[in-house]
Amino acid sequence: MGEKKIKVAILGLGTVGTGVYKLLTQQEDDFLWKIGSQLEISKILVNDISKKRKIDIDKSLLTDDWQNIVNDDEIKIVIEVIGGIEPAKTYILEALEAGKNVVTANKDLLAEHGKELFEMANKKAKDLAFEASVAGGIPIIRPLKQCLAGNSVEEILGIINGTTNYILTKMTNEQVNFNDVLLEAQELGYAEADPTADIEGYDAARKLAILSSIAFHSRVTFKDVYAQGISNLSLVDITYAKELGYVIKLIGVARNTEEGIEARVHPMFIPNNHPLAAVNDSFNAVFVKGNAVGETMFFGRGAGEMPTASAVLGDVIDVARNIVNNCTGRIACTCFYNNPVKHINEIKTKYYLRLQAKDKPGVLASIASVFGNHDVSLATVIQKHRSGNMAEIVVITDYVQEKHINDALQIIKGLSIVSEISALIRVYSNSIDEE
Ligand code: NAP
Ligand code: HSE
């Protein structure tokens, strides 16, 4: 057996830090048999020591000086729950350099600077654990790195932002407008005060970059991920989706193809019979398809004080077990390939398209002819809602390359019979083998 008491420091005492403090104190009596050692909170780094806290806390634990932590050789685990790039990045690098293990929930940092952080952890043979950085309380990093390590992961589909899933669920079930639900999501504390990263897909893109890197063993960063949010989504399309047997979700799609990795976040038509279609409200889910295991889905709370703290504490216990057994750094960075990430123009998928055109003979034929000239084959065409001399046309395509449909739409937009391209939304099909 190694050390009898392992000292930990928490950086940040906000939403997640408070949950971590609560769990570390609640579980105190169990650590000896869970780990073979006790855990002791040695220091907590905050921005403002005088700030009134939501919990009753021993004030002598609080410090606003990082040097008090990094220079304390007895601290073996640093839990970073400050968030953002700096000073979190410097603190993690310095902690690893000083021979400490790190647990973090910081998706922003990992999605942009993961390589540098993991190289330092590898060099020092220390653990850098980050379960909470993707999908909050849902176990997904460890399942991918360990339980599914015997697979070649083919595809990941994730509902990995709670705010947008809540908004889309309300729009679908109650026909409420986007802006009204966004206000509600903010009041309920799901969305950030500035909800841009949530609704424009950037938060999900950061999480998808982390998932893709682990699943495909090749570094994918935030800037590699195509991100399109839900702020332009209309109730009309949600209603059409229902009529056609789908539900619209903001999906992170990661695929390992022979031509490269696909990593994209955008609204998507999901067939009603797909397990992700039933994931509602602020819940998250990650659907993983492996060559051996087949289809699996991980579901639960993707954010919040205690669900996120649950993931952080799981990491802390894992790292502490490694310390006790003298095997930190056991599962190092697994990005041993260097595969290209495809540009969005290169992806192939099915599309839902809604446009407004003149209601007269030959219109559908003219539009279909432009699609035909661009290798875009149509699976379903519906003409609806005639008003005056205009009609709304709804199309679902077969598998098409993104560039081809965009080129075709450039021409269709210019036709005198077409007044507006109202929506273009990607459609999921149950099997990637159909491509
Ligand atoms: P938060 O509520 O804003 O808390 C941030 C904490 O960091 C505060 O206690 C703050 O101190 C402290 N802090 C800020 N700047 C600091 C600095 N320069 N030096 C020292 N301390 C500093 O954030 P959070 O929601 O807990 O999120 C923390 C991390 O978890 C982020 O990376 C986030 O992406 C991730 N995460 C959060 C959730 C969630 O549901 N909230 C879910 C998954 C992952 P003061 O208290 O003194 O101001
Ligand atoms: N704002 C995020 C969400 C929570 O809505 O899912 C933290 O990842």
Shape: elongated
CATH class type of the largest domain: Alpha Beta
Q: What number of structural domains do the residues give?
A: 3
For this structure, what is the CATH homologous superfamily of the largest domain?
A: Dihydrodipicolinate Reductase, domain 2
Spans with pLDDT under 50 lasting ≥5 residues? none
CATH topology term of the largest domain:
Dihydrodipicolinate Reductase, domain 2
Strand content: 25-35%
Largest sheet: 11 strands, mixed
Helix proportion range: 25-40%
Please give the CATH architecture of the largest domain: 2-Layer Sandwich
Taking the alpha carbons of the first and last residues, their distance comes to 54 Å
Q: How large is the radius of gyration? A: 24 Å
Q: Helix/strand/pairing class, anyone?
A: alpha/beta
Please give the number of β-strands. Answer: 17
Instruction: Tally the helices.
Output: 14
Bound molecules: NADP nicotinamide-adenine-dinucleotide phosphate, L-homoserine
Give the averaged pLDDT, no decimals.
95
